[in-house]
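Entry type: protein chain
Record version: 2
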Amino acid sequence: IDVMNKTCFDRLVSWFSYHLSNFQFRWSWDDWDDALSQDPEEPKAKFIRETLLKCLRLSYHQRVVELIPETFAAFLPDKPVPNFKYGIEGPFAGSVETRASA
């Protein structure tokens, strides 16, 4: 991983995240513990972070959080929050009358 071309690195991340999602995210996580103490831009740490980011596209946040060891939770991005573009704002937001008239 340390000397891989960027394109090859990205393809490995894509393939590996797909592989993990198909095999219940089973991986020898303990073999990669040294990445926890590395700089986030080091190849191993970046590989884990990018792989988990791709895994979130193939599953959902809570499932990935439950299946990876707690020590690797620092590599996960924050839980995504919906952004309702056309949400109703103001004092009557969420009331039945506002929803019916919208």
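Comment: The helical segments are 6-22, 43-58, 61-67, 96-101.
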